[in-house]
Amino acid sequence: MAARVDLSTQACDICRKRKVKCHPPPSSDATTRCRRCARLNLPCTFLSPSRTRGPKKRTRPGAELGASSRVSADNRDSDAKYSTDDLGDRGLFTLIMQDYLDYLYPLVPIVHRPSFKQSLEESRDCEDGGFLSLVMAIAAVVVATMPSRFQLYQSYHPPLRFASRREMARYCYDRIMRLRDSTYFDQINFQKFAISYLLYAAFRQLGDHNMSRMLDVEATQIARLLNLHRISEYEGLNCIETQLRKKGFWLIFYGFVHNQLQNVLGERLSYLDPILLHSINPDDLMPLEVDDEMIFEHEVLLPPSPTPCLVTGFIIHSRVFWAAVRSPCLESPAEPCPCVRARDPTVQVAYLQDRLHSLKFLLEDIPPPLRAWQPLDAEIIPNGDGGGRVADVRSQFASMRANLHVTHLWLQSLLIDQLETAQAHKKGQSSISMAHTQPNADAKALWLQREDLCRQLFCILYSLPQINLEANGLHLAYKVRDIAASLLVCPFHPADPEAERAAEYLRQSTDILSRLDSSEGMVTMHLQTWVDTDRVKT
Fold first, then answer.
1. What are 300's strand-pairing partners?
2. Are 341 and 333 in contact (CB under 8 A)?
3. What is the Cα–Cα distance from 18 to 462, expressed in whole angstroms?
4. Per-residue pLDDT reduced to its tens digit, 249-288
5. CA gap 162, 155 in Å, rounded
6. Residues 6+ apart with CB under 8 A from 416
7. pTM check: above 0.90
8. Does domain 1-48 correspond to CATH entry 4.10.240?
């Protein structure tokens, strides 16, 4: 016979809000909190007035979103069962969270997967404003990145109550801001970094660059305060927190490299300066090569032999970004500082050639699941989520392959751009004037490299399913566009075979971009999109 479970005659405020049974503490326990509040370290109060039993009149949560998205969620529906009901049905919200785990987590692993799943199952967002902000930020980045899933959410029953992805992302942002007060930044943690980073990623995916650059600054500031870049500051963290912060460093580092190579207007603040960059040993900050399910607070279960997992792709991707700005070999001679390279074109050319050579051969010996042209019978190891869903893991690896190899080609293309400029500067010419002269041996060699990058790019993009390309969001489209745009300034005569091949590559790029570019507005990444009202003439 099952043991009798004692229940409180009156549920505490937290248990009433969650509509769950309230278990009093054991009689031997001196605490006055119920078991749930004691376990979650929450205040256990009985302040809410009692209500008459029986069915309650429910309004449809969020039905008036179209009238005003600024109405407080608390006033919208005081009887809402879940804190996310203003977004939509809980089943739909759960689907959005699962889509993050299935499609975006391999590329943005900013949560500890088992802990995150458990918190979702326990509806922790109903009692923890920090976790509610996190899931709202995740919902924003999912809809911002994957338009096909957003269309599915709109056809759900009941459907998502937003007309566009931008409308939903902005609503999530507003809701998160309402959860903050004036003391929000007095205490920081990795979760607050994750929220800012996810919102930055969401608005960047939507092409809302003004909002994304401000959120980038916020995420960068929290990352600096948490000292994600200093391995010496990791002492005292548990295993889960250590792994999360190492991943967080590389996520913010990706943006740093983007800004280093593409900060055309010079308006973005930098995460690292040259001194800090040269003080970092990338190996110290690489996450452990195991799935989250093997990491617990006080121990990590390592496999008996190295096995490719999702973190393997994350590590290799991080090394690609590192190689774009620093030598992957720590024993290499000291690299010239930026000020020396700026003064001496010969030093700059040699530096860029070294970076390009390091990048080109970086992916020669990587595990089969991550190779650009994966054989059909390549072994895929199921992840440790307990489900053993091999098909899902294959899809996640496919998304990572697109991210890894397109990024690898894109970074090489950017370095070739810089190398052409440096060579022109060395010869006392502008890169534009060189485009109208007969190409010399150096220019021809660089052009052949551009052609090779395009051939590899098309092979990768045509070999992967659309859903895996879509999971990479607008970042993928931007990188493809950058690689293709480099072919517009062709140094050869239009009748030359090189020029004809360039025209064909551009036609193929246009076809691919028509499928990849899912932005809801005009791309303005390299244009000034802000208005300085002090300069506006009346």
1. 295
2. no
3. 48
4. 999 999 999 888 876 666 678 888 888 988 899 999 999 9
5. 11
6. 356, 446, 449, 450, 453, 486
7. no
8. yes
